[in-house]
Amino acid sequence: MDRTSRVVSAEEMARQREFGAQVKALYERRGRVPMAYTQTFGCQQNEADTELIRGMLAEMGFGFCTDIDQADIVIINTCAIREHAEDRVYGNVGELSHAKKKNPALVTVLCGCMAQQQHVADRIKNSYPYVDIVFGTHALPRFPQILFECLSRKKRVFDLEGDEKGAILEGVTPVRKQGHRAWLSIMYGCNNFCSYCVVPYVRGRERSRTPDVILEEFRSLVAQGYKDITLLGQNVNSYGSDLDGACDFPTLLEMINDVPGEFWVRFMTSHPKDASTRLFDVMAKCEKVCASIHLPVQAGSDRVLREMNRRYTAEKYLSLVEYARSVMPDITMTSDIIVGFPGETNEEFQETVDLLEKVRFDSLFTFIFSPRRGTKAWDMPDPMSREDKQKNFDRLLEVQNRISKEKNDEYVGRRVRVLVGEEENEKSYNNEYTKQSRTEGFKLVYLRGAEGLEGRFVDAIIERSSTWALFGSVADGESN
């Protein structure tokens, strides 16, 4: 695929900006700045998409608010990865009816991964008449046109059209949240088709942004003062596979590491089947690349991994962990695990527990299997009861919580580098530690003595630990 077919064309961008100008003119006639309220469910990629939407809204003259009652447009960016996420979205969509009654001119929008699915769009159309716009991930570049059609024709708009190899939207400046952390998408879509996962169906096939545009945006983020920048992709390890050998992910990390400035760069998510020893070698030698990786294992049973279509074995996964720790002894490792995949036995679940004990992740994101319509796992026999799955889930959490506490205990007494954040500690029982910060491994550290150090890298002495956080003081010589 050549560069011109990879991105939204200049002609189409100009067309969408014309629609945006017409939207701006419609609101200017009302004599005030229109306000937008955005809410995001799901992963960091969704957060990045919302930032692009906010960028388009800003071009159309919108400001932003945190109170839905002040909004002229409400946009809910949705997640389809699990049933729980969808239920939360439907609950929030239901509450929009109250906002619509207060302000009939309010424009209500549902977008993202849920909205890309036809059965969801049909449900919204039939059961939620106060939702004005539904558009999927493939229609994101057409948002100005979609909004103009809704406003000018005073009708509901549903747009799920698009190519799974859809062109990448470039040239829009994201409107990010204030702070010192930023997301930067380096690719979109997924080619893996894990049997439980809906992502390839709602986000399409893998499309990589070119290194030049990534580096340009990265330099801009550093110039704006961002200090902790996360590269995003459904599988960053396959970055560049569609760029005709121009650049792979380890090479991209080396290029980013050479960008001048004081920052940390991290990335997610990595697929174990594509993780290589070269990746870990590059991480080890690049001082600005965090010694931290999220490497989803999903299960410890080889049979279950085959049924999941993960295309690696538990032994292969353990060998990756061993190599990573051989070149980066202090690497922080996190993972995902699905409990109760269809057909998983208690013996196979025990293999997952055994793997957990061997790897000793710093933390873990674990979920009970949630069937997703359209995936292969949707039709798989699933004999284990929900109660038994819950018991296994609780046991897994118990094991991981113990490991997490033991791993955090190892930090007590150590001097570690942290990035001080803007957030205050709202835990009253630890209110002497007033500031939140993060380590290179993204461990949460509550600090005392950090007032006025927001956005700075400082050394901290760790004094206490819990299962989920560390507590410490700014080291001598680090204060203003």
Helix content: 25-40%
CATH top level of the largest domain? Alpha Beta
CATH arch. level architecture of the largest domain: 3-Layer(aba) Sandwich
Total number of beta strands? 19
- Which strands sit side by side, in order, in the main sheet? 2-1-3-4-5-6
Uncertain stretches of 5 or more adjacent residues:
none
Beta-strand level of the residues, as a percent range? 15-25%
Radius of gyration: 23 Å
Please give the domain count. Answer: 4
Mean pLDDT: 93
CATH homologous superfamily of the largest domain - what is it? Methylthiotransferase, N-terminal domain
Treating each run of at least 4 consecutive H or I residues as one helix, how many helices? 14
List the helices and strands and how they pair.
Blueprint (H helix, E strand, L loop, with lengths): L2 H4 L3 H19 L6 E6 L3 H16 L3 E2 L8 E6 L4 H20 L4 E6 L5 H10 L5 E3 L7 H11 L3 E3 L21 E5 L1 E2 L10 H5 L3 E2 L2 H13 L4 E5 L16 H9 L6 E5 L8 H9 L6 E3 L7 H7 L5 H14 L4 E8 L6 H14 L3 E6 L17 H24 L5 E10 L10 E5 L4 E5 L8 E9 L4 E5 L6
Parallel strand pairs: 1-2, 1-3, 3-4, 4-5, 5-6, 7-10, 10-11, 12-13, 13-14, 17-19
Antiparallel strand pairs: 8-9, 15-16, 15-18, 16-17, 18-19
Helix pairs in contact: 2-6, 9-10, 10-12, 13-14
